[in-house]
Design a protein that fits this description.
By secondary structure, the chain is α/β, with parallel strands linked by helices. It contains twelve helices and 13 strands. A five-stranded mixed sheet has the order 3-2-1-4-8, sandwiched between helices. Helix 5 crosses helix 12 and helix 9 crosses helix 11. The relative contact order is 0.16. The N terminus is likely disordered.
């Protein structure tokens, strides 16, 4: 159960009293949103087809954010609680530092200099952990004390909410299930391992399939009638990864978020049947849910974190 925070009346009625900004960093893409206290998006922008590296990333992010922030009305700027950045990789939340973004080729980037001139509280969070906030506050986990969010993008991450707390781990590595090997002699991963789960179920796998069948339509490659072999392999690989998560945390609720969630949703029962073939899960009361927030789960979660901290909505270790 979350601990009640400041006046719930202020939170529910005076929706223009405070605002928050979310930033989502992805492969070749950066998005920005401004939300009010109810999580309603007041302003948003996404910049596609970006090319950046360790040398250029800070300058690109600084320039894009400055453009976004300058377009916000002054009366709203004065009511912004903070900025939260969602990043698909390993981060140091306290030092505001990107430690390793394996799939984005970014490493050891300090973000303090970019945001210090705005005189706002700035937070940095792993993208899957950010999803915990959106699912707990706005999504399908509002009544859950134990659940895991699987965030599928250029890689795969898991946000872990156990005993009413978001769990980061001692070294901020909790939830890096995309790099658990499901085939020790399989494909080589950027992390140095072989057969990592994300190579078979993330956008890396779908991009390979799109190229193979010469289409740009995800709906086609996830259509079992037209692309049976890929779909059956995908379901099998996805089920293996979920089984590992269940054996680790023994939870009953898994939420799938990200760009691929809406395509996976129609195969929930197939995934569940695959998992239940394992003797440990014969009568396992598992709920596999797909986020109704889809690709916005992470950036909404990022923007909700300053609000959550202010009102004590989600507990974090």
């Amino acid at each position: 159960m979350h601990t009640p925070g400041r006046s719930s009346v202020s939170f529910l009625v005076n929706t223009d009293k405070f605002y928050s900004i979310g930033i989502q960093i992805e492969l070749k893409k950066i998005s920005f949103i401004l939300i009010d206290l109810l999580g309603r998006i007041k302003k948003e922008r996404t910049i596609l087809n970006l090319e950046y590296n360790n040398n250029t990333f800070s300058q690109i992010l600084s320039s894009l954010f400055n453009e976004f922030f300058n377009e916000i009305d002054k009366e709203i700027k004065d009511k912004i609680l903070g900025i939260r950045i969602s990043f698909p990789g390993i981060v140091d939340r306290k030092k505001l530092k990107i430690l390793d973004g394996i799939n984005l080729n970014l490493k050891n980037i300090d973000l303090n200099d970019i945001f210090k001139k705005y005189d706002l509280n700035v937070y940095l969070e792993n993208d899957a952990n950010a999803c915990i906030y959106s699912e707990k506050i706005l999504g399908k986990a509002q009544k859950d004390e134990n659940f895991v969010v699987i965030s599928i993008g250029s890689g795969i991450g898991a946000g872990v909410y156990i005993n009413s707390h978001l769990h980061h781990g001692n070294n901020n590595l909790c939830g890096e299930f995309g790099h658990i090997s499901i085939d020790y002699s399989g494909k080589k991963c950027n992390c140095g391992n072989r057969g990592c789960w994300e190579l078979y179920v993330s956008e890396i796998a779908t991009e390979e399939e799109l190229n193979r069948v010469s289409t740009k339509e995800l709906s086609f490659i996830f259509d079992k009638e037209q692309n049976k072999e890929f779909v059956e392999k995908y379901i099998n690989f996805f089920s293996i990864g979920l089984s590992n998560i269940l054996l680790t945390f023994d939870i009953n609720n898994i939420i799938i978020s990200g760009n691929l969630a809406k395509y996976i949703e129609k195969y929930q029962q197939d995934i569940l049947k695959n998992i239940q073939k394992n003797i440990f899960f014969k009568n396992y009361p598992l709920n596999i849910l797909c986020s109704n927030l889809n690709e916005r789960s992470s950036i909404l979660g990022a923007a909700l974190i300053p609000i959550s901290d202010f009102f004590n909505l989600v507990n974090s270790d």
